Amino acid sequence: MDTSRFATEFSASIPGWVLEELAGEPEALATAEERMRVLHRLAARNFRDGGGGPFSAMVIESETGRVVSVGVNRVLASNLSATHAEVTALSLAQARLGRWDLGAADGPAHELWVNWRPCVQCYGATLWSGVTRLVIAGDGPELEELTTFDEGPIRDDWEEKFRERGIEVHIGVLREEAVEVFRDYRAFVDSGQAVVYNARGSAVRS
């Protein structure tokens, strides 16, 4: 076995424009609407930038509202299928804080905010991250219908499973604005400017 050809590390990063978008925002976003508007803005720019799909996420310190990290989907930019917005945001928060458990008893509680319900991969990532609350713009069929992304076999009782593990779930912050971003993405795809990447080699430019 020639191990000299093995990759021994991998990495992903958020693009510089994300930090530019956040530069004018306060350290703590006080309201649910402020937080979700930022996420919608990032999601709408991300697919136009070519880094990945119309998805964004942020980790927030529960007590203060301080933004700890922000992530956008980086699948196309990184060639790593795991770099969804939730995974990126959670990983950057863990790297910044130096801890894998974002809800450990000796530290502040943290929340994950996302512009739609997590896919099956990010469902698991959220469960194991230690966050104590998940807030999403919405759930339902609109995402898959409009974007044609395969979100995977999500359980019907996904909310209950989060709550059983001490993760509060809140749904419905600026839902229609999230759907509008997905409509814009679909128009981008239909014009041939975006790649819809799904598993089993089905990444295609429509």
Write the layout of secondary structure elements.
Elements: H1 16-22, H2 32-49, E1 56-61, E2 67-72, H3 75-78, H4 85-97, E3 110-114, H5 120-129, E4 133-136, H6 142-147, H7 158-164, E5 168-171, H8 175-190, E6 195-196, E7 204-205
Pfam families: dCMP_cyt_deam_1
Protein name: Nucleoside deaminase
Organism: Arthrobacter ginkgonis
Strand segment count: 7
Given helix and strand content, the structural type is: alpha/beta
Query: What is the CA-based Rg, rounded?
Result: 17 Å
Q: Numbering strands along the chain, what is their spatial order in the largest sheet?
A: 2-1-3-4-5
Largest sheet: 5 strands, mixed
Residue ranges: pLDDT <50 for 5 or more in a row? none
Pfam families: dCMP_cyt_deam_1
Domain CMP/dCMP-type deaminase: 30-165
Protein name: Nucleoside deaminase
Organism: Arthrobacter ginkgonis
Supply the key terms.
alpha/beta; 206 residues; two-stranded antiparallel ribbon
Folded structure, characterized:
This protein is α/β, with parallel strands linked by helices. Helices cover 39% and strands 14% of the residues. A 5-stranded mixed beta sheet has the order 2-1-3-4-5, with helices on both faces. Strands 6-7 form a two-stranded antiparallel sheet. Helix 2 packs parallel to helix 8. It is globular and about 45 Å long.
